[in-house]
Amino acid sequence: YWSWWEPEDKDSLINNNINSLAVDDRYLWVGTKEGASRYDKIADKWDRYSRETGLPSQDVVAIVVDGYDIWAGTSAGLCKYPRMSDDPNAWVTFTSGIEIKPMVVSKEFARSLVSDEIWAIAVDGKNVWVGTRIGVSQYDKSRDTWTTYTQEDGLISDAISSIAVDNDYIWFGSDSGVTLYNKKNGDWTTFTVENGLSSNRITCIAPDGNYVWFGTFDAGVCRYNTKTKQWETFTKKDGLAHNSVLSIAVDGNLVWFGTNRGLSRYDKTTGGWTVFTQFHGPEDL
Hints:
Elements: E1 18-23, E2 27-32, E3 35-40, E4 45-49, E5 60-66, E6 69-74, E7 77-82, E8 92-94, E9 118-123, E10 127-132, E11 135-140, E12 145-149, E13 160-166, E14 169-174, E15 177-182, E16 188-191, E17 202-208, E18 211-216, E19 221-225, E20 231-234, E21 245-251, E22 254-259, E23 262-267, E24 273-276, E25 283-284
Antiparallel strand pairs: 1-2, 2-3, 3-4, 5-6, 6-7, 7-8, 9-10, 10-11, 11-12, 13-14, 14-15, 15-16, 17-18, 18-19, 19-20, 21-22, 22-23, 23-24, 24-25
């Protein structure tokens, strides 16, 4: 009886537990439970990033492309990487320095990230928006300044699970509903089941022209028309694979939904649904 040990292939994915994905013209960026990986689509090769190369934590929860930079949110801080770099140690980390008590988070104290435990990131060109369990931090890249927003400012909850940039508006999702921030005039608007959401437990947000899609943890997906202010809900009975929606991708006239029971595709032109699962190909419903 023979057994042999093979060293792990370094030219591969760093870990199979994938939290987040981002793509740019050259690379696929993968955030995992054990670090980050970069796949070069042209050269067909993988690079790995871990705490050894400068990540503040192995657990990379969120990853986004921002021009020439990559922003990664971890369980121990935010970090930035020049995406074309060949130096695996080129990560720059931003942390809260000291953990500020939620009671004293006023503008004067918030000179850094509000919390190192990052749940969501979005970018709008000028700013990086970071969602944590105790508020939102806005990083102004050109001024190198941080601003913190909490329930006192207008958020419906301090625990922010998703963020989406929609031109001059920023959408924040939480377990208590949705908050909309107008960057131009500083207005805050909140939406809950009382306004038309099917559930207050928001998992993901995807702007889509005049519409915004909201995935919920337990009640399907909602679509908000920003012009007419009308809400629509789609659930399993309409053709969604499962009512727990974890991710949304807008693809022209199609919208894709990742659920606990497979992948769903909605065709905006026909209103038809297609479901893809592990055991079956497309099922037109």
